[in-house]
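**Sequence, C-alpha cells**
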Amino acid sequence: MKPRILQLVDSFNEGGSERQALQLTRLLRDCGRYELFLATLNPTGTLRSEAELLTSEIPSYPLSSFYNRNAGVQLGNFVRYLRDNKIDLIHTHDFYTSIFGMMAGLLAGVRVRIASRRETNGMRSRGQLLIQRIAYALAHQIVANSEAVRVKLIDEGISEKRITVIHNGVEMRRLQTSVPTSREHSLHALNLAEGGRFHAFVTIIANMRHEVKDYPMFLRAAQLVKQSLPETGFLLAGEGDLRLSIRALAAELGLDENVFFLGQCKNISDLLNVSDVCVLSSKAEGFSNSIIEYMAAGRPVVATNVGGAGEAIVEGETGYLVNSGDYAAMAQRIVSLLQKPESARAMGEKGKQRVEQNFSSRALLQNTVALYDNLLRSEHQQQQSGVLAPNTLDQERA
C-alpha cells in the first residue's frame, strides 16, 4: 500500500514557496511512489489552475488569526480530514502552514511531520518566533532550502540532527522555448515590440509585495548603467502593492523610457530569452528561485550576497555577488557583462551546467523521496519495537 502524503501550502499566489510546493507535488505524483493529497490555507491565487491539475480535491482552511475561534474550528476540521484520509506524512512549506500543519498533524496522529524554513531574515515578532519554535518541536524534521537557512536554524537552537537541506529545484524545460526563438519573436510575445530599440536588457524577477526584494537598489543600479550604456532596457517582472512606489522611483530617477513593468510574467522562457543579464537585489533570501531560473536559462547573474545566493552562484564563473545595498558595485558588474557579451555567454553556460548538476527538479525529487522514505521507515521501526521518539522540545532545551 502506498504511503499517503499531504502537501500543505499557504495559498496559490505567485511566489517562490508556492511554486516550489506545487512543483514538488507534481513530481511526487508522477513518480508513482505515493498517494498524493494537497490542502491550503487560502484557496485563491493565480496558481490555482495549476494546482487543480494535480488533484480533484483541494480542501481549504482559511485563517484570519491563530488566536480566535475560527482558528480552533479550522484546526478541528483539518484534524478530521487528516484522520479520515489516513495521512501518513504531512509536509508544510512556510511559516503559517508549519504552525497550523504541525499542530494538526500531532493531534491527528500523522506518522511523520515535516516542516519547512525558507528564509533567514528576522521578520517575525517575538510571539511569532515562540509559536514557530513550538511548531518545529512537533516536527520530525525541518527542511531548509539552503545551508544559510540551516545555520540560522541552528543559531535559533534547533538540533542539527533534525535539519535536512534540500535546495530548491528548477524545471529546465519551463525556461526554454519549445523551438529556437528570435529576440524579436520573444519581444512580441511579451508585448514589448517597442523594446527593439534597445541593444540589451537587464531583468529582475521578484515580487513587489515585500520591501526585502529591494527594488530601489536595482533601480539605482539601473540609473548608473543607463549613464554608461544608454541603450539598455530594464525588465521588471513582478506584482504587488509596492508597484506604484517602485514606478514612482523609476520616474524620479529618469528611467521612464528604459524601464518596463511586466507584472506577473507567464512567458518566462521568452523573458529570459531576451535578457542579457539577470539581477536579484534582495536584502535577505533563503534560496532564490529566480537565481537558479536565470542560471538554468543560461544567463549570467548579478545578485546580492544574501542567504543561499553564494551556494548557487560561483563568483566570477557563473555571475557576481555584491553586498546588499551596494548599487554602485551592482551597476559596475552589470556594465562589465554587457560590454563583454562573449564572457557573459560563457558565464551563462557554466551556470546552466551547474543547475543541471545540482539544482534540477530531478535532484529535488530524489532528495525529497530519500527523506520521506527514511522517516517513514524509521517511524515504522519504532512502532514495531515499541520505542517512542523522544520529546524534541525537552531534548533541545537540554
In short: DSSP finds 16 helices and twelve strands in the chain.
